[in-house]
Amino acid sequence: MEYVANTSGWRQSIENFIGHTKVQHTLVVLIVVNALILGLETSQNIMAVAGYELHLIDQIILWIFIGELALLMTARGFRFFKDPWCVFDLIVIGIALIPATGSLSVLRALRVLRVLRLVNKIDSMRKVVIGLLHSLPSLSSVFGLIMVIFYVFAVIATNMFGSKFPDLFGDLGTTMFTLFQVMTLESWSEGVARPVMEIFPHAWLFFVIFIFIATFVIINLFIAVIVDSLNSSKQAGQPKPEDLVLVELRILRDELAELRHQVASRR
To answer: How many beta carbons lie within 10 A of that of residue 112, not counting itself?
Structure first.
């Protein structure tokens, strides 16, 4: 039993060290520095001057990250793999260890994924990601709605404009891509709407209705669902008023018990 207690003690000491505020802040700084280095490595001029030094610093930071994960795995054991954020860090760092040669050379570009570790290190970012993940079930309904709207408008546009504008509305897939361009408001007027209106003068009505529904209504629905999910996550992490009352009552009860004990001891 004493051995188990000692084992638990040093494991907790390691986790306390890794979780210390100064250590976490240092890791955040290293992640930012590593991100800057990866950006500088995209410049051939900079690499020609300081390529070796940048690569050396990159490797030192990588081994620091590996040491951090090794310590956490030692302290937590199998509990390490139950934390999705730890598994995410392990995958990101593991990608950097794969030899980026031959057919795997494309993996070298994935080293920049280390920057995403900031999400795990900065609490506010982590809460935003959790809120986004919680919003996925609701977003799936919104996504289904926009797919129905796209399909309806695509069928209408293909039947109306397909014969005259096969490059834009020749078939259902092409039409849906064109409507996606219209939804993003990228060159929708000069590139799509005005050429169509030269042959179909009243086509503006179709595009205005589609933009109003797809862009202004659906996009706002996406934003509303995400904001609602973030608010729900924030409220879920806060104690309820009745819980605060119970806590205060327990504190008062403990203080009364302590006063009674002191009075009894004086007698």
So the answer is: 16
